Amino acid sequence: MADTRSGMREAKRLRSRRIRALLAAGLVFGVGATMTLAAWNDSEYGSTTFTAGRFDIVGATDGTTFSSHPVGTPAALTFTAPFNAMVPGSTVYSLFSVRTANPSVAGSLQLNVASTTGTGLATFLRYGVRTIAGTACNATTYAAGTSVVPDNSAMNTAGTVTQAVAANSGSTANYCFAVSLPAATDNTAQGLTAVQTWQILGTAS
After folding, report:
1. What's the domain range around 22?
2. Percent above pLDDT 90 for the chain
3. Co-location of 135 and 174 in the same domain
4. Same domain, yes or no, for 10 and 64?
5. Among 24, 96, 120, 183, which residue's beta carbon has the most beta carbons within 10 A?
6. What string of DSSP letters covers 134-180?
7. Is the pLDDT of residue 3 over 90?
8. Across-strand partners of 47?
9. How many domains is the chain built from?
10. pTM (2 decimals)?
């Protein structure tokens, strides 16, 4: 009996050691897991705000006083005499200057015809447009300019080339218009009128 009791006590001691060993291992594993979760970390972030640019063109009939002339409120071009009493063989001139506003991105300009109305004089008239170096629009500066609308074009003819304009009013396109009543115009043109509206279409670049 003594041997039996002694064996049981020894078995209990072994079980107790195993349980303590397992508990100790569990504590070690727990410490290891805690150390992994507590690892240090750091981050870097970058951010920016995007803003769309603006494109805006303005025009002036005198080359100096620029403002917007939207559809429905065109600038009144001032032609040289005798624009209001034209006779066969006469040619009249007018300046229209266009540039970007400030602020504005750069762009290009395209001259178009918006409308031609009146009582029929436009069918007799012929015109051309050139860009000139300064703001004095006359026969001399027109002759030295760069063609935008070919000479002797019908009044419904649009420009054939575009003009570049720099950002923030950095450059100006000075258009010199030359409108003629051909020398061979017959008497049926007497007293007729023509109301011509041009468009300068600007496109951002």
Report:
1. 1-39
2. 80
3. yes
4. no
5. 96
6. SS--SHHHHHTSEEEEEEEE-TTPPPSSEEEE-STT--EEEEEEEEE
7. no
8. none
9. 2
10. 0.79
Is residue 129 within 8 Å of residue 148, measured between CB atoms?
A: yes
- Side-chain-side CA neighbours of 77 within 13 Å: the count stands at 24
As to burial, measured by CB atoms within 10 angstroms (0-12 exposed, 13-18 middle, 19+ buried), residue 140 is exposed
64-108 pLDDT tens trace:
999 999 999 999 999 999 999 999 999 999 999 999 999 999 999
**Amino acid at residue number 123:** T
- Pick 7 or 21 by higher pLDDT: 7
Task: Tell me which residue of 151, 178, 153, 159 sits closest to 86, measured CA to CA.
Answer: 178
Find the angle CA(18)-CA(21)-CA(27) to the nearest 5 degrees.
Answer: 145
- Tokens standing for residue 46: 């970058």
Residue 16 lies in a domain: yes
